[in-house]
Structures are given as structure tokens and as C-alpha cells.
Request: fold
Amino acid sequence: MEADPKVPINYHTLEAEVIAELRTRDRFAPIEERQDTGVLALDVISSISHGKYQTFWRGVSLMKDPLDQTILQQLLWELKPRTVIEFGAYKGGSALWIADMLKLFGCQSRVVSIDIDLSLLDAEARKSSDVEFIQGDSFQVEKVLSSTFLENLHHPWLMMEDAHVNLVGVLEYLDKFTEPGDYICVEDTNPLAPGAGQGLVKKRGYKAYGPSKMNDLRKFLTGRSDRYLVDQKYTDFFGYNATWNMNGYLKRV
Reply:
């Protein structure tokens, strides 16, 4: 039966139904209980990717899909992190957006963004006083982020891994400095996401990233369910693993 267009939609009821349904679910789960599958089909991810790589923030390349940009905005508001550590700066759009969101939310946060090559930074990001860009190699993470540096950062933390390099090594090193309530967001773990250096135009074809990053994430998380749980509120915000960051929103418990 079609809805009567003369009857106004009761958004209050819709919102209440969704919230009630969510309350019946366990919010946090060990990685062992999660599947490496999601509701987003390959053709959907391919289509959305065309828009993802055209997104800008204040004129700076952002490269975030609309699903995860929304999810991250919700997480930033809930967590209100005192420190954000991002691996993979590129042109600086992501760090700039995060810093702007946190200022808008009234947070006094320190945003640190790391990349092996900061020559790519956009001028708008480079001149920002709200982001601290550090040039460094993820394979030498202990030199880039010394123990003294990390021990003086305020919690809660939000750590975002978007460099796709030495994931296990980076997470194992940072694990020693995390505290309950911190979050980790491991990006691009969805095996259907476009592979590095692969074009999206039809004549070049679409090649998926594959399971390597998800496998690395599982390698780190296995045996650590007493320390890290998948936050299903965010991984399943738009449907089961309807995200580029499949099983990648983690809470330190």
C-alpha cells in the first residue's frame, strides 16, 4: 500500500523506532564475531568512488566517501577526542576537515597528521594553525612518534590509519600508549574498495583493493578482544559493514 501523500511523515516515530532497534543489539563485538563481508556491492562502491575522489574541503582534496564522512562526524561528536593522530596526510584535506569539525564542536583538540612526503600538502592545509603536520615513515613509527611525545598527548585519542603501510607494526607500537575509551579507525579495509593506483574509468577497469589490509587488521586484533572491540554502531551505521572501513571502527576497552 502506498503512503497517503496527505498524511505528514512522523519523523519522531521513525527516529524512535530506529533507536529502539539499536538498543536491542550489542554495540561492541570482538573481531572473531564479525564477517569480512558487507551490504555494499562492487558496482555500488565503484559508483560512489567516482564522487569520493571529487570531494574537497575548503578547496583541498578530501577523498572521503559520503558514508564514512557521516560516520566520522558522528564519532567525532560522541568521542570529542582531545588528540587525533592521522597516518596518511596526502594534501591535508582530511586533517583540515577534522580540525574544523572539532573546533565547531567546541573541542580543544590537537590534530597531528603524518606522511612520508609533505611536499604534496595544499597551501590551505599548510597554513592552518589547527593541524600539526609531521613528515615521517610509518616503518619508523617509534622515531616519528616518540614515547615522550605520545605520553604527553591528552586522551581520548582518535587514531586514523590511512597510509596503508606497516599497519600491524604501527598499531602494535601505539597499543602500548592507548587508554580505555580511545578509538582507532582503520581505513580502506573493505576488500572491494579500489586498489591503489587503479583507475575508476571504464576503459581502465576497476580493480578491487583485496583482503590484504583486512587480513592485517585481523592479525593485530586476534587475541586482543580484551583490549579492542569493533564498534558496530559505526561499522553498521548504514547496514552491515556499509563502509570503506569494514570492521575498522575500534574502541579500546
